Amino acid sequence: MAAMTYREALNLALREEMRRDPRVFVIGEEVGLYEGAYKVTQGLLKEFGGQRVVDTPIAESGFTGVGIGAAMVGLRPVIEMMTFNFALLALDQIVNSAAKMYYMSGGQFNVPIVIRGPGGPAAQLAAQHSQSMETYFYHVPGLKVVRPTTPMDAKGLLKSAIRDDNPVIFIEAETLYSVKGEVPDDPEFLIPLGKALVRREGTDVTVIAYMGMMYRAMEAAEELEKEGISVELVDPRTLRPMDTETIIGSVRKTHRAVVVEAGAGFAGMGSEIVAFVTEQAFDDLDAPVERVTGANAPMPYARNLEKLKTPSKDKILAAVRRVCNANGS
Amino acid sequence: MAKTLTRGGASPGLGVDAAVAKQLLTDMLLIRRFEEKAAEAYTLGKIGGFLHLYIGEEAVAVGTTSVLRPDDYAISAYREHGHCLAKGSDPKRVMAELYGRRDGLSKGKGGSMHLFDRSTNFLGGHAIVGAHLPIAAGVGFAIKYQGGDQVIVCYFGDGAVPEGEFHESMNLAALWKLPVIFLCENNRYAMGTSVERALAQPEIWRFGQTYGVPSERVDGMDVLAVREAVARAVTRARQHKTPALLEADTYRYRGHSMRDPAGAVYRTKEEVEREKLRDPIVLFRDKLLAAGLLAEADVRTIEKDVSDRVDEAVAFADASPEPPGEWLFTDIYKEA
Ligand SMILES: Cc1ncc(C[n+]2csc(CCOP(=O)(O)OP(=O)(O)O)c2C)c(N)n1
Ligand SMILES: [Mg+2]
């Protein structure tokens, strides 16, 4: 174990996988000479050279297609989106080419690519640079979607994503790059995709959250502990495929659930979690499942408005208190 | 067969021997018959969805493939039956795919627009206009990365040229020197939109110059001309990793798809009839007869042989069962 930042953990994962497998290469805008817009690929060009750390012009659809073609014939590209906002220019390649190739070809051509980069609410970057992007991807059969909350997850999940034989959308967060945590040095340390994690055990209510919202929910849980409410925190880590079993297991134990998500709530991840919890564990519930979501508005620039857009700790506290007081218990 | 147009005189210097000539004619005829049968099957309701026929454009796929190695790659859009067959796929399995049957190349999950064949390095069958051009560049990238000397031919229509992905791909292939041959099949229309109504600069091959990609225009109705132009591009790509842009001047005799059977709104009957005078199969056959490389009897034998193979393909497709219900959920994710 070593303490390192989320950014360093990602960098280490890339390095280890590139050392292990010569088919792995990194491609994207500013990944080489500039060492990454967020410095995730720092030092890679020096270690691996220009053939494996490929700077591209600003052509998201083009270089994503390049990755897909390369993956079809044996390489394992890691495509960096400078931020996931720009992945929308490559959405057709991701949804119509990468996700469906294996199916349309009747299992002849799989597409082992990772598309990674930051996404989600950032600090005063306004509507086009600060938004939850996972929604656009987790709806699509054929894609896997990962959201790593901690440095340890960042490393273990990115390595698994690179070794996975399918297209994986791996969305980091600008606001987490400098977060520090313990990360195993073992180059074989992997966290399987599709496995949720109980980050905190509790008995009264299950709170499901990831990324920045998990950190906020953690603070809320500590405060609630003092009020005598014991919160269990579950981090899905992979949004597709979703580990419904762990979430349902936790809800069966606590009988209450709150889902926190940064994105605008309508048809969001929270909707999906509430749906399957209700379908599969209705009889175990002592209260309706609540959602705490981002406001149904684009991201504003002004600091005060921005604050209103993203779920606050207070909103989480209020929701948990509501579900815990429900049903008179 | 359409009306014959003979270009006068034996032409001793065709540049191909009798065996090659016979093969080219056979391959073009196979595609023509295959497509005719597919059209029939469509009207019988055996094939559904969109069916885009390649009739009239056979010289492009056949001339091109004739100078490729089996380990070279090809990739195409949705009008790809001809490219797939030319690359060597079994007509039985192609027809079964059109029928949506379990023995189809893609197990019936792809259909007419999504033919793939790993055994021939045929990389699909892509139905989003322009989207497979960057993918082709990626295959070129991988060839170079792996130190190989294969090339990839990327067939696309004139309709892809106004798309951004055409320009992104040309730029990337030129910038990174990728062995990609971009082969535009200019059949003058994207559905009902003529090239003149779509491109401010309608000479497609000239876009190559913009990106420093060697480019030329070739008569897409002349299988030998296609063959020679592609051969030049392949040599450059193999030896120097130089991409190419070729514009094959061709024409589709049928509507855009079976749902546009006449195509009479956006072009005239007279135009279609005039273009049929350039029928690539008729032209080539007559050329071979005139040159004495083939006799009438040879042509009849070829036609019979091709018809038999297509009939077999139809019988095979008809007999192939539907894919089992469980297959709905297979091939979504590849398990480790
Ligand atoms: C991105 C995209 N836009 C629109 C369509 C609908 N569409 C299908 S084929 C076609 C015309 C394409 O013409 P062209 O590229 O010249 O190929 P051709 O049909 O002539 O072989 C259009 C507009 C599509 N499939 N993809
Ligand atoms: Mg066209």
Summarize the structure.
The complex is a heterodimer of chains A (329) and B (336). By secondary structure, chain A is of the alpha/beta class.
Query: For the largest beta sheet of chain B, what order do the strands appear in spatially?
Result: 2-1-3-4-8-7
* Individual helix count of chain B: 12
In the CATH classification, which architecture of chain B applies? Answer: 3-Layer(aba) Sandwich
Largest sheet of chain B: 6 strands, parallel
Query: What would the CATH topology of the largest domain in chain A be?
Result: Rossmann fold
Description:
The complex is a heterodimer of chains A (329) and B (336). By secondary structure, chain A is of the alpha/beta class. Chain A folds into 2 domains: 2-183, Rossmann fold, CATH 3.40.50; 197-328, Rossmann fold. In chain A, 38% of the residues lie in helices and 19% in strands. Chain A contains 13 helices and 14 strands. In chain A, strand 2 (24-28), helix 2 and strand 3 form a beta-alpha-beta unit. In chain A, helix 1 (6-20) runs parallel beside helix 8 and helix 9 packs across helix 13. The termini of chain A are far apart. Chain B is globular, with a radius of gyration of 19 Å. The relative contact order of chain B is 0.18. Bound molecules: thiamine diphosphate and magnesium ion. The site of thiamine diphosphate has 13 residues of chain B, from strand 5.
Q: Topology of this structure?
A:
The complex is a heterodimer of chains A (329) and B (336).
Chain A: E1 2-5, H1 6-20, E2 24-28, H2 44-48, E3 53-55, H3 60-72, E4 76-80, H4 91-98, H5 101-104, E5 114-118, H6 126-129, H7 135-138, E6 144-146, H8 151-163, E7 168-172, E8 180-183, E9 197-200, E10 205-208, H9 212-226, E11 231-235, E12 238-240, H10 244-254, E13 257-264, H11 269-281, E14 290-294, H12 303-309, H13 313-325
Parallel strand pairs in A: 2-3, 2-4, 4-5, 5-7, 6-7, 10-11, 10-13, 13-14
Antiparallel strand pairs in A: 1-8, 6-12, 9-11
Chain B: H1 18-43, H2 58-65, E1 73-76, H3 81-86, H4 91-98, E2 122-125, H5 132-145, E3 152-157, H6 164-175, E4 180-186, E5 189-190, E6 193-194, H7 195-198, H8 206-211, E7 215-219, H9 223-240, E8 244-249, H10 269-276, H11 280-291, H12 296-319
Helix pairs in contact in B: 1-2, 1-11, 1-12, 2-9, 4-12, 5-6
The complex binds thiamine diphosphate and magnesium ion.
